[in-house]
Amino acid sequence: MDAAIFSLIAAIGGWCVLRWMRTKPSFNRPVPRVEFDDGDNSRVRYARESEKLIAKGYHDYLRKGQAFSMRNVVDDRRPLVFLPRKYLDEVKNAPENELSFPKFMENLSILRHAGGPLITDELCHATRTDLNRALPRLTQQMYEGCLTGCREFIPECPDWTSIMPYPLLLQIFNRIGQRVLVGPELARNQEWLDLTQNYTTSLLQGTNTVRAKYTPSLRWLAKYFERDVKVVYKERQRAAALLEPVLKSRLAARAGKQKQTDQHEDAIEWLIDDYHRKGRKVTAQEIAQDQLGLTLAAIHNTAATVLSTLYDLIDHPASLEDIRTEIRQTMEEHCGKFTRAALQSLRHLDSFMIESLRMHSMPQVTVQRLALIPKTFHDGFHIPAGMQVMFANRPLNHDPDVYPDPERFDPKRFYDDRDSGGNNKQHHFATVSDDSVTFGSGFHACPGRFFAQDVIKLLLASLLIRYDFKFAEEGQKRPVDMTDNLVVYPNATVPILIKELSF
Ligand code: HEM
To answer: This protein's superkingdom (predicted)?
Structure first.
């Protein structure tokens, strides 16, 4: 009996040591930890001021080719490891079983424990392949969606009228986005629209609660006790219930060979295709998970990018006029319609959007990966399994070695480059390169960026040719951005003035 207890204790002890060894960071070179100097390194401080620390780490270490680490408020056992650019190629090309983006996301947002959708292969495939192929055919439909959205959500404003722009932009973008993602059956269903619009906020609330109240090993309990997490699960169930009849009818149409599939060009159809290609039956629960995953990836960050660009346009009235003229000319040339080619010819707008995104990029960090096994880089630098690695995006966009005079907003910074450089591809809004990682890099680079680019242009075109905008106060400038952990948002709490243009 004693021997059995002794063996059990020894086994548990051995398991603890092994676990400790797996989780204990063991870099083979110093990876300095960057913290606030005044000793206040609280969770709240990180949520609000992480930008300062990342900028400090970028300046003190990354620019010199050395990695640094920072507190990980999601899991204190594993700090966030920021890598210098010399490792970008190896990270972006690393296979999934070495450095994983989906696993990173799952860990960072505690998706599994907060009821959030996982990033599935099917949802990535639908975006990367099918959505991007369909985009040229969807341009005019999306433009009409923008016009209808503007008419429906923006109040009549023959004189200067105060509006809160973000909720309006969000509603318009969600309407257009859902037409492409979920298709015609639910794109005008108010319950679906409310659910998808609110889902990101519910999930954020759920993950914040789980983070704040539960240590990593007890997070699985949250779904039984936490109201915020129960709400997320309930919304997911409701999404599946709304999708069930749509899925049934689409599958029935396929079975009856009514050729109805030809009529649909949306993510439901692409997802069904992908599940079937893999020989799998698809359920409403799975489609709901993928639809909510797409909603999460697409809706808020694109609407916030429109808001951010609009703020910059108000701050630069001469550029706004140039862009308005460019849009009008393009529309005349294309008989009032929008094609992909017409969108691509909006070069002033494109250059302005890239500059706005450079100055105010929302993700502070991108190309984020979880090391599933230990990884050794070309120069011998070694990171242990379990580390979360990433690249600092915002400081790169403000690095004077990459962008001369980086704090100056230059609306034509990328327009001129396109003329002189000969390599037009280098400077389109959706382009990713080693100098521009706002949309990530490598295989996992945001597959929705072309869709985001097109809708942002269409929405701005619809707004600028119909309305004038200004800030409420004389001499007022763009409000200061707001930080929430690793994301920086345009401040959406400020009203602006809008007025219909007279022709
Ligand atoms: C301005 C808006 C957007 C920004 C700034 C943005 C940014 C990003 C970033 C930084 C990543 C991670 C890339 C990496 O780590 O290498 C990503 C991934 C992703 N994005 Fe976007 N995104 C935007 C809009 C969209 C839209 C509109 C969609 C869908 C229609 C979308 C779908 C996705 C998906 C599915 C992934 C995961 C890709 C994968 O795992 O392979 N995004 N996005």
So the answer is: Eukaryota
C-alpha distances (whole Å) from 24 to each of 31, 77, 78, 391 are 14, 8, 8, 22
Tokens of 86: 């010399």
CA separation for the pair 28, 382 (Å, rounded) = 6
Q: From its phi and psi, is residue 467 left (phi > 0), alpha (psi between -120 and 50) or beta? A: beta
286-299 pLDDT, tens digit per residue, is 999 999 999 999 99
Q: How far is the CA of 297 from the centre of ligand 1 (A)?
A: 6
Query: Among 359, 389, 439, which is best to mutate for testing ligand 1, by the most ligand atoms less than 8 A from CB?
Result: 439
**Residue 398: what are its φ and ψ, rounded to 5°?**
-115, 20
Compute the distance between CA of residue 67 and CA of residue 51 in angstroms, rounded to an integer. 17
Q: What are the tokens at 192?
A: 């679906």
For 440-490, the pLDDT digits (tens) are: 999 999 999 999 999 999 999 999 999 999 999 999 999 999 998 899 999
The whole-model pTM stands at 0.91
For residue 363, how far is its CA from the centre of ligand 1 (angstroms)? Answer: 10
Q: Decide whether any atom of ligand 1 lies within 6 Å of the 304 Cβ.
A: no
Strand-pair partners of 483? 488
Strands (E), 115-247: 161-163
Lowest mean pLDDT among 126-130, 198-202, 352-356: 198-202
